[in-house]
Amino acid sequence: MLTSITEGILCCLTGKTASLVLPLESSEPSDGFEFVEVKPGRVLRVRHIVPERQALVTDKQVTVKTDGNFNNESCSQKNESKTGSSVHCKRKITVYRNGQLVIENLGDVLHSEILQCQDGDLEPCSTVEVELADYKEMPSSPDPNPVPPPVPPTHGEQKPAPPPRRRRRKPKRTVVIDSKRVISSCKGTDSDVALFFVHGVGGSLDIWGSQLDFFSRLGYEVIAPDLAGHGASTAPQIAAAYTFYALAEDLRAIFKRYARKRNILIGHSYGVSFCTFLAHEYPDLVHKVVMINGGGPTALEPSLCSIFQLPSCVLHCLSPCLAWSFLKAGFARQGTKEKQLLKQGNAFNVSPFVLRAMMSGQYWPEGDEVYHAELTVPILLVHGMCDKFVPMDEDQRMAEILLFAFLKVIEEGSHMVMMECPETVNTLLHEFFLWEPDMSRKDSSKTETDKTAAASDTLHTLKTNKSMDK
Fold first, then answer.
1. Number of structural domains, the chain?
2. With contact defined as beta carbons under 8 Å apart, do 9 and 313 qualify?
3. Where are the beta strands (DSSP E) in 19-127?
4. Please, are residues 318 and 402 in contact by the beta-carbon 8 Å criterion?
5. In a domain, 263, yes or no
6. Is 269 a catalytic residue?
7. 88 is catalytic
8. Which of 121, 404, 432, 463 could bridge 378 with an S-S bond, Cβ 3.0-4.6 Å?
9. CATH of the domain at 317
């Protein structure tokens, strides 16, 4: 503590920031660590584990063009592509001038709750109108232009005059989504599947250690970058390098470098916003998304009354207190095991300048409810019940906005649930990767409807013939 205060005073006097994060020398490239220069002088550390079955075809990897189209040069990858189940994604999103948001689901709708991913199936095509303007009270089928019911006149009373006609409100914005999406099971033996893990503020790729080891052993290709200023990536001494847009472009470059045909994005906390950005930018390449304690579908805006707005030297003096606060709020328990996990995961080990710039740069006005409602990719929401950073109702709000969303709550977990409960999280993620919608129920219901219609037509024909005979 005394050392931290001394270094903070020297930082204030000299005007220099201590504890800079610099790239490490990778003496063992076999461990899967690579350094990628996304921009001149901007280098990110990436852990890239390629299964042995794919190591022989490094010269025929999948590439993504600038326009986002998929270019596959591997013949074996074409042959291993899965058919999957075709789902009709159709919804109408209407925003009114008073801020009211109305979403109509007109296509296939997945069940809202799913405990075992293999049991998920599709409901018949239906129209569901959900009003999302009120946060707490959610009527099932609200009318954007309600009309009071007429009151029947009693005997002897004069009929009341009709109420004046209300002028129909014009929507401020209307978005219509109408597309087909193929959802398939993603196995570790499929060479066209890649998993991307994105950490949040103060973390590093090391927080995904259990997940990277688990899924790489199952044969999945895994990619996990360190954000700028985190882990072993370079730490530019300019605040503009840590805005949402700057970091999003870094991850776009990483995604375009390693993307396969079917990519699954796994984000934690602030990393969820970057996964949402990539899923929106590349809907044909992002196959599934996992959001771990990511919060609600609201536009990002930095808080002006936050402790992270203090000068970097002051934050450096407070770093021991901040680390303890993070341990207390990020983990359900604060024992020796949790402290060791925090140290091994290299979490909350960034310079005060980077921490301040990251918190101040969280400005993303486009990422509002409409932006999230436009996503058609299946999404698994994982929430730690003891999380003190992200309330439960925010993830519930996210599940209500998204088209295909499954919410899973882990009671013994907190904000760092993937480190606290690695076995539970790994099993849940693996089930979601293997999940595929069951279209048999939809096809059987359609067949029964066709049979009923055919029988009705036959009966109508028989009655017509009898009447003609008479």
1. 1
2. yes
3. 33-39, 42-49, 63-64, 70-71, 85-96, 101-105, 109-110, 122-123
4. no
5. yes
6. yes
7. no
8. 404
9. 3.40.50.1820
Range of the domain at 400: 182-434
What would the two tokens of residue 84 be? Answer: 């999957």
User: What one-character-per-residue DSSP string does 418-459 give?
Assistant: HHHSHHHHHHHHHHHHH---B-HHHHHHHHHHHHHHHHHHHH
Please list, in sequence order, all residues whose beta carbon lies within 8 angstroms of the beta carbon of residue 35, skipping any fewer than 6 positions away: 23, 26, 43, 44, 45, 46
Q: Which two tokens stand for residue 115?
A: 């405990």
Q: Does the reported pTM lie above 0.85?
A: no
Catalytic residue among 250, 387, 395, 414: 387
User: Is residue 232 in some structural domain?
Assistant: yes
Do the domain assignments include residue 42? no
Exposed, middle or buried, 295 (CB in 10 Å: 0-12/13-18/19+)?
Answer: buried
- Give the closest residue to 79 by CA, choosing from 338, 286, 261, 234: 261
| Annotation marks residue 456 as catalytic | no
Catalytic residue among 216, 233, 269, 273: 269
From 287, 383, 415, 430, active-site residue: 415
